[in-house]
Every structure is written in C-alpha cells, then in structure tokens.
Amino acid sequence: MPDPSLTAFALNCSLRPSSSEETSSTDKMISDLLDALAPHGVTGTVERVADHDVKPGVLSDMGEGDAWPELRRRILAADIFILGTPIWLGQPSSLAKKVMERLDAFLSEMDDRSRMPAAGKVALVAVVGNEDGAHACHALSFQALNDVGFTIPANGGVYWVGEAMTGTDYKELEKMPQGVESNLKMAASNAAHLVRLLKAQPFPGVEE
C-alpha cells in the first residue's frame, strides 16, 4: 500500500479569480491531475493566484499586504508542487511568471549545505490552451522550477491543446482524450514514486 501521507499543492495561474462566473480549464486540468495522484496516496489542494494579492518582486516577502508568504509556506509544506497555467500568446500566463519570479528568492535562501528550500520537493506543470505553446510553457516553467531547487520527474508535464483558432476549451470536452489520460497517469505515478525516493534518501547537498 502506498504511504497515504503524501501531499500536493497546486497554484492555478488563470487570469480570472474564482469569483468569476466563468469556469477554468486550468482548474479542470489540475483537478484531473489530483485525481490521477489519489491512487498513489497523494491528497491535494488548489489556490488561484488571482484570488490573492501577490506582489511583484523576487523576495519571499514583499512587505505589508503581500499574500505570497502564505502561498510559499503551503508550497514548501507539500511534497509535490503543481504549477497550472493557461497558454497566452504561446507563453505561460503573467501570473505563472509572477509565481516563478517570487520563487527566485530560493536562490539566496540555501542552507549550510547549499540546498534551496525546494530541495526534495517534486514539481509538475499542467498547461491548457487552444493554441500552440504547451511544450514552450513546459520548457520555460521546468527550467525555472529546476533552477530554484525542485526535482522534475520523467513525463512531469501534462497538457491539452485544442485546435487553433477555435473556441473549444478543455473544460468543454465531453470525454478526456486517451492521450491526456495516459499522460496524467504517468505524471502522477512518476511524481509519487520520485517523492518517496527523495523522502527516503534526501539530497545530501555539498560540503562548504
């Protein structure tokens, strides 16, 4: 039986807050990924970045009113971090970029063995859109997440991209495409497996 204590925390970087009357395809993709993680003993929660006053900057705390410190705490409390983003102009959303900019602070927060706060944490990236750009979004996001200490599992990027110049969104599909379902299951399996390996044998860091 898998260890039931593993946790995931996802940030939905949709540009719309949850108070919007429109549902979010990014939310659906994250929900589907959490469903795929559940059989591996992983429970998860989601927050929309647009619901919080995350200040621009590259520090872990940008001062009064900044909502990032609490989101940062929840990222580091989880075993798996999921960054969910829609595609805009072939790129991750501006809120996803803001999240990555705030994570940049990890570069100056290393411990005495040069390990960043995200050492031992696994990251997945979930992307949705009805235009090209999923692989580019994965490349940009994974580079940033790896730079600040997260470990990326094999097949750790999940996505759905609809036909270009049409109005169909992921949330509107009557049935999940087989390729997406297979991708979600593989990402979930690999992420849970990798987390358990890292918990059993943490990164040693380097001697100063």
Automatic annotation (TrEMBL):
Domain of life assignment: Bacteria
- Parts forming coiled coils: none
Ranges where the NADPH-dependent FMN reductase-like domain occurs: 10-163
GO MF terms held by the record: oxidoreductase activity
Q: Which Pfam families match?
A: FMN_red
Q: Which Gene3D superfamilies match?
A: 3.40.50.360
Q: What is this protein called?
A: Multimeric flavodoxin WrbA
**Higher taxonomy:** Bacteria, Pseudomonadati, Pseudomonadota, Alphaproteobacteria, Rhodobacterales
